[in-house]
């Protein structure tokens, strides 16, 4: 499957005329019931792929959990570096998983357990972490060539064929969201590669008009060695940007890992080695308006150095939940005031993914020991932890 930028106008018109539906962490409206799990009435499932560090020989799993029943599916998927997952807006049993820094993605049918694998051509071309849907079309963050120039590719969901390319206006685009009635694409670009010396990484968040492909606004991350990592859309199309900062190690082992990441022949295992060994320092939060303007800024040292490896975000009931993996905490924020509401101390749990369940008004947090639930009203942690494997980003689907 060869990526290209010369897309037929007919395909582009077809893409633009379909109104989009944001599914990353959002509600899949209009889905009432389907045949998965015996045709029961629709309910919220928590889906997530295996942690890539634990993947061996290209075999990992897509897990599906229900709050009261526990695991309802564990489907093998042939990916090495699984990261983000998202579902079809009208057929939520079709879940898509993409790699970060790898050339593969797959579609998983929760109903039939069937898996379809897709692979990019070209040794330096790769998916880079996340995707979403605009109508019947996939939008995936990708990098192309040795220069790791970023782009968002528009693909047909049925065969992954590229029908359009949208510039990300940055390098290493990772996360993306749709706002403004699905007319504006927001992209978090990591920026330049992490080097051996402190530097600005030219990381930014780009606001792109889908119709014209023009840049509407660009918010740059100002702190040294910090980069925009993940996004969450809040009320009024405000956007929260969670930043990360990798500790600059100048030892020989770190240098060799960086060299191996740049080599396609050793890239996969080197990426896993980096995630195992690289350390993260405190990094800020950016609160942006619907047009990309900066509304507020939470300094990196706000929680006394605990905002380390800010990883996953989830919004619900007027509250934003954020996991800080190496800080060992989950922070909860009032989205109207941009003020901290509560901090949950989970030092042994390694809080990773987080999602919001509307039906029960609970946040669900992925820990190394399983899934923990937090009441969105009281922000109290339930004492029981549901046993589950350690995975990456949690996503919610109606099923």
Write a structural description.
The protein has four helices and 29 strands. The protein has 399 residues and is mainly β. The strands form six sheets. Strands 4, 5, 6, 7, 8, 9, 10 and 11 form an eight-stranded antiparallel β-sheet that branches. Strands 16, 17, 18, 19 and 20 form a five-stranded antiparallel β-sheet that branches. The chain has a four-stranded antiparallel β-sheet with strand order 3-2-1-29, with no helix packed on it. α3 (252-262) packs antiparallel against α4. The chain is globular, with a radius of gyration of 19 Å. The two termini are 31 Å apart.
Secondary structure blueprint with pairings:
Blueprint: H1 9-17, H2 36-39, E1 44-49, E2 60-66, E3 70-77, E4 82-87, E5 94-102, E6 104-109, E7 115-119, E8 126-134, E9 137-144, E10 149-156, E11 162-171, E12 173-179, E13 184-189, E14 204-209, E15 215-220, E16 226-233, E17 239-246, H3 252-262, H4 267-277, E18 280-281, E19 285-288, E20 294-298, E21 310-316, E22 319-324, E23 329-334, E24 339-345, E25 354-357, E26 362-367, E27 370-375, E28 386-387, E29 395-398
Antiparallel strand pairs: 1-2, 1-29, 2-3, 4-5, 5-6, 5-8, 6-7, 8-9, 9-10, 10-11, 12-13, 13-14, 14-15, 16-17, 17-18, 17-19, 19-20, 21-22, 22-23, 23-24, 25-26, 26-27, 27-28
